Structure formats: structure tokens, C-alpha cells
What we know:
Layout: H1 45-56, E1 61-68, E2 71-78, E3 94-95, H2 100-113, H3 123-126, E4 132-133, E5 136-137, H4 143-147, H5 160-166, H6 171-174, H7 181-188, H8 205-219, H9 223-232, E6 257-260, E7 267-270, E8 286-287, H10 289-301, H11 307-313, E9 317-318, E10 324-325, E11 330-333, E12 339-347, E13 350-356, E14 363-368, H12 375-383, E15 402-403
Antiparallel strand pairs: 1-2, 1-14, 2-15, 3-8, 4-5, 6-7, 9-10, 10-11, 11-12, 12-13, 13-14
Helix pairs in contact: 1-12, 2-8, 2-9, 7-8
Domain Beta-lactamase-related: 51-375
Organism: Streptomyces glaucosporus
Keywords: Hydrolase, Signal
Amino acid sequence: MSRRRPHGLRAAAGAAVATALTLTAVAAAPAATAADRPDRGGHHTRTQQALDAVVAAGAPGALAQVRDRRGTWTGSSGVADVETERPRLRPDRFRIGSITKTFVATVLLQLQEERRLDLDDPVERWLPGVVRGNGHDGRKVTVRQLLNHTSGIYDVTSDRGFQEKVFESGFFEHRYDTWTPEQLVAIAMEHEPSFAPGTDWSYSNTNYVLAGMVIEAATGNSYAEEVERRVVRPLGLRATELPGTRVTMPRPHGRAYERLGTGEEAQLVDVTEINPSVAWAAGEMVSTVDDLNRFLRALLDGRLLSGKSMREMLTTVPTGEGDRYGLGIRTRDLSCGVEVWGHSGGIHGSVSYVFSTRDGSRTMAYNVNTSASADSVLEAGFCGQEPAASPGAGEAGQSGGSSPDRGRAAGDRVTGRR
């Protein structure tokens, strides 16, 4: 049976903390667009209801965008900032956590197309002596096994000392610490592997820290430079960034929150500022719902990878968790039988995902500014029985608004990837 691991950096919660951070307000972001008005056709009523339910369950705010043949709809519920009560807006940037992995896998597949590496190379070839200790052996692990989480390499985020510093009581003291990829891998090497390479599946953030290091060894550039040059700039993802060690968020953005403590003593604290080097190539990126939808549609359309590379990326292994994992991308069947492809991501005060049908006919990006389940919104976005249009149906202005914004999705084209 596959061993379950957190799908991204776990939120800063767990240990009770006596002193809460001061909630810091930010200036209100500019208005999203003039097109942000109610969904008068009622096509996204179920999705809006699901967003409202996430907020009713305790999340400060939720934001989603659906792109399909009708155009682009953006809906929100709750607030981006609990002090100013500013609503969540379409241009808001947020940390996307493990969705970073899909960008990293794309770059490695491009490098294979250029014959600068082979995904079946042993990790040892590119990172000699790095994957060693307590049964780990980089000579027996391939780059491909890093990307589909069949390497067996221990997940650094499962280390108790790391958890205490990053997720629990030590968060307040260590939130601004800079972590190097070598440090993260060294922590993982203090433990035995989860299993022999290729014999099972287990999600490990260490895999993608190593994948980022392989990119750097193969190119001589930082992995961030390669992601920006090959993916971000060609696709025109102007709101997508790889922040490195910068602890603040680029504007416009809301705040990120976690509830620390238990029961009546639990307090909502602001965890917006954190040094994202703690995640590095496993989950440091910042983006928006617009950019995430544009990226995934371009990827599945074949604008970033050749047909052969896409077949490799979409070749999956079972996770033991009801879905399957490819190379930096996962697939699952929803309750209505719709198969979707994409990735989710969790990091302090932020849970995100972007999923699409294989043909790209419908894509959906989502973010909630705390740790909260996202399945209900995903189900509504792809499986909701959307009623026929009726006057005033589906108006969601009281919940943060929505926008038809028709026609933009079709114009998202890329002329080159290098």
C-alpha cells in the first residue's frame, strides 16, 4: 500500500501557541476589472455556492476562476484581509505551493527534448554524493522517479525537527530563516528511504528539491531562471513569480491566515510573510487564478512540450489515494465521471489548485487564504448541474462578485518557449 504524505508544505498549525501575530492590514488592491459583475446567466451558481460554503466553514476568503467555452468567470467569497474587510479580487496574488512542481517537471522535460539530460539518468550523475545515507543511494534513483514520486526518498517535511521549526511553535522564530536546498536534502538523508526506488509511491517534497538541483546542474543557471525563461515569460504570466528568499508578497495580494491553538483558545493569525526558500523548487512560487489557468491550458494544448514529452508527463502511477500521478501532474475522476488533470498546492495560509479536462475545454483555478478543503469547489466547478439562464440567476455580488469576461481565454497563445 502506498504511504501517504502531505501534498505540499503543511500549514502552520498543530501546536498551541500562546502569542498570536498581530494582524497586519494592507492597502486595498485596485479594482479587478470592469467586467467583474454577477453571473447573470446562472452558469456558475453551484461553484459560487461552494465558495460561500468554504467561507461559512471558517475560511476568511476564497477565490476561483473557471474558463470554458462560455468564456472566463471569476467568483469570490469572504475577504482578503480580515482587518480592512477588503474582498478577494481577481488580480490577487497568492502562494501556490506544490503547483510549482508542474513548472519544474515541464522544464526537465524540455531539457530532455534538447538532449541535455535524460529522465532515466541516475540522480547521481547530476548530483554526485548528494543522495546518500541511511539507505539512500542516488545511483539507484532516476530523475523520472523524482518527478513521479516513486523514488522512495524521505520527505523532508516529515522530519519532526523540521516540522517544529516550520509548522508548529517554532514558526514564529524561524519564519524568516533562509533554507538552502542542500540543507533540505541533508535533513531527508538523516532518515531511511520510504521504500526501494520504483517499488511504491509516496509524495516527497525532497524529490522536487532534488529536481530543482538537477536543473541547475544541467544548465548552469538557477532553476528559477530556467522556469522564468522557458515558461513564465513565453506564456506572458506577468503575475507569476519565483520569490527566492523574499518574505513579502508582491501587490496586489490579500493576507494568509492560520488558526493556531485548539477550541476556544484558537486564534486566527497572519502568516503572510514567510521565507519561501523553505519550499524552494517543491513549492515557492506565487501566481494568480488567471496565470494558473493560462499555464495549465498551454501545457495541455502542447504549447510547452512535444507530443512525446506530453505522453511521458501524462503516464501515471497509482498513488493509493484514489488518483494517479504523472510527472509533476496528477489526474483524478470526479464524482460525475469527469477526468481532470492538474495539481494542488498547500503552504502556510494558502491552499490552491488548478485542474483541467484533458482537452482544455474547461480549466479551473482556486485559492483559499487558510488551510481548508478544496474538493467541494472542484466538484462544483466541473460537476455542478448549471441551470438554464434566468433573470438574475446566480448573482453573487454579496459574496465577492463574479465576472463573465468572455473571449479572453481564446487569445492566450504562445509564440515560443525558449
